[in-house]
Amino acid sequence: MFVRRFVSRVLGLALALGLAFAGGVASAREKAPHLTVLVSLDGFRADYLDRGVTPNLKALADDGARGAMRPSFPSLTYPNHYTLVTGKRPDHSGVVGNEMEDAVIGGPRFKMNGPNANDPRWWNQAKPFWVSVEQQGKRAAAMFWPGSETEIDGVRPAHWIKYDSAFPYDARVDQILAWLDAAAGPPLAFTTLYFDAVDTEGHHYGPDSPELRAALVEVDRQLGRLVEGLKARGRFEATDIIVVADHGMAPLPAAHRVVLDDLVDMAKVRLVTKGAVTSLSAEPGHERTVETAFLSKPLPHMTCWKKAAIPARFHYGRNKRVPAIVCLSETGWYSTTREAKAKPGKWDNVDGGAHGFDPYDPLMRAVFVAHGPSFKPGVTLPLFDNVDVYPLLARITGVKPEKGDGSLKVVGAALR
Q1: What is the DSSP letter of 242?
Q2: Has 77 been annotated as catalytic?
């Protein structure tokens, strides 16, 4: 009888302690304001997560949700970063490439980090998530993200910093934590965080290089610093961390180049982009010559279409900023020009890596990991399109979303 009473009291005490602990965790979640952190690991291919060198990211995945995302066409940096925060494919968001022309805007063409890249007219065909957050009475921040330096719909994030690739990674994490510590105004509800090392080393040395491995280790270290910083502030339990990438990476041998001058006199062409995606228009009076060169017969290592004939699966070609002819290179091949090859460029004469290829190629798949109070643990999602990230952000942050191209049909399975 004594033993039974003793065991009963011990079990009762353990149950009480367990309930108290669970109540304490729930109370902490209730007291700490909810935060969503959207982290971009530029160029982090989905299968990099299984290389065994990113323990912090794997821990978030194991205790949350993971999956692989199909990028939008073209699988380039600016179009897909803007798709992630607008839920609109590049044809609908207006950011149709890393370089663009627009007859209405005129002037120099749009280039990444170019002198006119922050003109709102390039970005105003879609509303990024941080603008909706601010307009709906919450506070948003951006620790680097394409479009975040621009006043869109009359709004900027409450906190933002002009992009600087040399800005130390430790300082990027520390800046977000400092924004959290700021006492003035409403609490931060949403912030972005961006790291480019994986993409940079993947381009320079290829996706299977020691340099790429070192970049994986470094960005994972920063995720660990973010988690520890949130824990130290009592914020981790109330924070949803979503880790994404804009695209994957494929090997690009130096010899795999299609020289456009071998196809046509480049003086007759207005070339907007080259590389994995070649986009161009004919100079006035040369339309027939240019169309014959690119559209009359199969070309080695690339396929070309008139913009209206681009395959429907790419959801691309209706926007006025898409040039008249668009060509997609075979994965692992790039287009270039004689002029570009003559220069000691970082893309045209070296073995390395590249993206921009067919989004349906597994090498272009991007990582997705989601961890926090909104997500069930141990979930592996089937392949989904990256337009679905936006409605997920809206759901967990409590923001009414704009109409877009994504849905919660697949990613909603990760929600509690």
Answers
A1: E
A2: yes
* Structure tokens, 235: 């914020």
Please give the CATH number for the structural domain made up of 254-350. 3.30.1360.180
- pLDDT by residue (tens digit) across 216-242? 999 999 999 999 999 999 999 999 999
CATH of 32-250+360-414, one of 3.40.720.10, 3.40.50.300, 3.40.50.620, 3.40.50.10950: 3.40.720.10
Of 27, 92, 35, 67, the residue nearest 236 (C-alpha): 35
Catalytic pick among 36, 54, 77, 83: 77
Q: What is the per-residue pLDDT across 5-16, written as a single tens digit (0 to 9) for each?
A: 433 443 444 444
What are the structure tokens assigned to 287, written together? Answer: 């339309």
| Domain residue spans of the chain | 32-250+360-414, 254-350
Q: Hey, what amino acid is at 92? A: H
Cα separation, 19 vs 26, whole angstroms: 10
Cis bond before residue 74 (omega within 30° of 0): yes
Q: How far is Cα 72 from Cα 89, in angstroms, rounded to an integer?
A: 6
